[in-house]
Specification:
single chain; alpha/beta; 13 helices
């Protein structure tokens, strides 16, 4: 892969851009807001700095990696000669589709368009383009630097060649790609969403404190973090959008968001990005 473009410089977009740059590729990191780009670059620089401090890489390596990331607000400049584009904007189809439509018009015919969506069907997103055979899901996990999995999501129209190239690209980033079929929530988020929703119902029924529910899950299942810590990391608003998306498309009651999650989002306690989350809203005791 010669040139990659990542669209969106938030937590996921900047993490993906860093992974691409670490693999040795040049990457254009695109966002409509300069302040978001600045924060994204700051996040990458901070992540690389921690790696230097741990002795994982040298400072010269960190400098070279950061130099490969070209931040821009100009979509045409970022995408017009890209070999591979990864869209990582807000997790709503009505936000993603106009962006994908623009990219489809700008990018060369050879370019593969991928979405980092965590729950929206790839067939729905690809319908915004004229290249459904060269459209695929590349679902990275947060934090990108630490999580090795990529769900490679193949729609009914995604070509085998697009899957092959995407799997090889994922491996080149040091990740472990797993190919799955297209469905709401794919595989990982269908599992974790159901578990998180049940944890929210337990909290809503006041059976245990949020911190103790997390502790039980970590000790009982050997999870590295509990469901509420995971919600705070991902963002309660993102988790709610994902739950609503899966429920609206399937009608399965197990994915109907617990009312308490909606109250958490309405209260603004959406997690790390807000500096306040579920533990703050529902303190122990």
């Amino acid at each position: 892969m010669t040139k990659v473009c990542v669209v969106g410089a938030g937590t996921m977009g900047s993490g993906i851009a860093q992974a691409v740059a670490q693999s040795g590729c040049d990457v254009a990191m695109l966002d409509v807001k300069q302040d978001v780009l600045d924060r994204g670059l700051g996040g990458i620089n901070g992540s690389l700095g921690r790696m230097v401090k741990k002795g994982t890489i040298q400072q010269a390596d960190a400098d070279r990696i950061l130099a490969r990331v070209k931040a821009t607000t100009d979509m045409r400049k970022a995408a017009e000669d890209a070999d591979y584009v990864i869209e990582a904007v807000f997790e709503r189809a009505d936000v993603k589709q106009p962006v994908l439509r623009q990219l489809d018009e700008i990018c060369p015919e050879r370019t593969i368009l991928a979405s980092n969506t965590s729950s929206i069907p790839i067939s729905l997103l690809s319908s915004a383009t004229k290249r459904p055979d060269r459209f695929i899901g590349m679902h990275f996990f947060n934090p990108v630097a630490m999580m090795r999995l990529i769900e490679v999501v193949k729609s009914l129209l995604t070509s085998d060649e697009t899957v092959r190239v995407s799997v090889e690209f994922g491996k080149s980033l040091g990740k472990e790609p797993v190919v799955v079929k297209d469905s709401p929530g794919f595989v990982a988020n269908r599992i974790i969403n159901a578990a998180g929703n049940e944890a929210l119902r337990i909290l809503q029924e006041n059976l245990a404190d949020a911190e103790d529910i997390d502790k039980i899950c970590k000790l009982a299942f050997n999870w590295p973090i509990g469901p509420f810590e995971m919600i705070d990391l991902a963002g309660a608003d993102v988790v709610l959008d994902m739950a609503d998306s899966i429920y609206q498309q399937t009608g399965w009651e197990r994915y109907k968001a617990a009312p308490i999650l909606r109250r958490v989002v309405e209260s603004g306690y959406v997690g790390r990005k807000a500096g306040k989350g579920i533990y703050n809203l529902f303190p122990k005791g």
